[in-house]
Specification:
about 80 residues
């Protein structure tokens, strides 16, 4: 994942992050432009399941996409192995 600084547009790096919940992380991001040096926090979270897990955690719920998705060959081969 690539983030750009909202002020100067230069690429930024995630310096540290922590798990907030099983589906969200809080990350601290720092601009790499030495003339800017902006540091900010972002929340990264799972919002929609596109292809359901083959090994779902019963304690985790992520909304399932209403739009049907096509499975690729790798996913189909995993399903066929079970």
């Amino acid at each position: 994942m690539r983030l750009n600084c909202p002020h100067c547009g230069i690429p930024a790096k995630v310096r540290t992050s922590r798990e907030v919940t099983r589906i969200t992380r809080e990350a601290y991001v720092q601009c790499e432009n030495m003339d800017c040096c902006h540091v900010w926090k972002v929340i990264i979270g799972a919002i929609t399941t596109i292809v359901p897990s083959l090994n779902p955690n019963p304690n985790v719920y992520i909304n399932v996409s209403q739009k049907p998705q096509k499975l690729d060959e790798r996913q189909l081969s995993l399903i066929n192995q079970k």
